[in-house]
Specification:
49% helix, 107 residues, mainly alpha, 2 strands
Length: 107
């Protein structure tokens, strides 16, 4: 998998885990987070899975990369904030853009 190889070359620490998809557009409640954790989820999001389903249905090979932008409801002790998500996304950009360029080049 090019992601792991390129990340290693660039010193980017990638983690693997179980991604749970929720419909959104609202953040999950603390109860939903507890349920998903008990079911084995490591991360929760509102996208990626619908896009992967469509791609798989079209016989398109898929790989995915998620940027974790906030702790889920009930985990941080603070209310969730969309501004926090946007800020974390911007901070991740410095590592993600070169990583994606490297992966595209490797493909």
């Amino acid at each position: 998998m090019p992601f792991a190889e390129v990340a290693s070359e660039q010193g980017v620490d990638l983690k693997e885990g179980v991604y749970a998809a929720m419909l959104g557009p609202s953040y999950e409640t603390p109860a939903e987070i507890r349920m998903l954790h008990r079911l084995g989820a490591d991360a929760v999001g509102m996208s990626t899975v619908p896009e992967v389903i469509v791609a798989a249905h079209s016989s398109i090979k898929v790989t995915a990369l998620s940027v974790i932008t906030n702790q889920a409801a009930g985990l941080s002790g603070q209310p969730l904030s969309h501004d926090e998500v946007k800020e974390a996304s911007e901070l991740a950009r410095a590592k993600i853009v070169p990583l994606l360029k490297g992966v595209i080049k490797a493909l």
